[in-house]
Amino acid sequence: MRIASFNINGIKARLPRLIEWLEETRPTVACLQEIKSQDESFSADAFEKIGYKAIWHGQKGFNGVAILADGVQPIEAQRTLPGDPEDLHARYIEADVNGVRVACIYLPNGNPQPGPKFDYKLAWMERLRARMAELWALEIPCAVVGDFNVIPEDKDVWSPAAMASDALMQPESRAAYRRLLAAGWTDALDTLNPRGGVWTFWDYQAGAWQRDHGFRIDHLLLSPELADRLTAAGVDKEYRGREKASDHAPVWVEIADIP
Asked: Which domains does the chain possess?
């Protein structure tokens, strides 16, 4: 079973690239972030044509998340992150697919920091920790994947000095991320690439892609029930270099079959 995550940075603008990736790599589950599409204009028909069924949580022009599954209908388990009824951002959706609970997240960026956007980021991460504790208590195979907008360690960025003032790698952001892992979740990419140097994002500006000035902010966190079956994890880096690409590359894990 391959579970993948892809911040597509606008599904309408990048639909050909997205379809291309799905057909060429065929993940069992594909979690999308920043679809930037209202619910009624989501491209469900395009995915149906290539055998994927979908659920989604959209928002006009911003945010938006979706879960696609190959040949089966994802069964929605949760829409929106609990804990703040006034938070209307489309940043979270959760579904059951083939016996696995998959949560797709688009965590707030938090810039500029300090300020209300950074405060919102940290509060969102605490709400996420609470939800992950609930998922843990279910004792089911579970993956929480997506764009976390956190660079966990210096080894996860091409230049720590260049990003030192960014909300993505502030001590508070990193500490909040460590608290997620401390509850017993496994960061799949980090576990299989302990020396770092693995990027998932390259900015459009300043030739970042051409100079490989990237960093890792797209993560795949696995519950013990899945971590025990982790066989591989990686980044589909080449898709970042294609025409009209997202500024993120897809990330994925391979999980041995669950009996």
From this structure: 2-255 (3.60.10.10)
List the end-to-end C-alpha distance of the chain, in Å, as a whole number.
Answer: 12
Say whether 87 is catalytic: no
Q: Is the pLDDT of residue 206 over 70?
A: yes
Is the Cα dihedral 120, 125, 127, 128 positive or negative?
A: positive
The reply, when asked if residue 7 is annotated as ligand binding, is yes
- CA separation for the pair 211, 11 (Å, rounded): 26
Task: Assess whether 52 carries a catalytic annotation.
Answer: no
> Which of the residues 57, 89, 219, 248 is marked catalytic?
248
Q: Which of 244, 240, 226, 239 is nearest to 28 (CA)?
A: 226
State the catalytic residue, choosing from 106, 187, 190, 239: 106
213-254 tens-digit pLDDT: 999 999 999 999 999 999 999 999 999 999 999 999 999 999
Length of the chain: 259
> In terms of pTM, does the model score above 0.90?
yes
Yes or no: say if 22 and 52 are a contact pair by the CB < 8 Å rule: yes
Q: Is 193 marked as binding a ligand? A: no
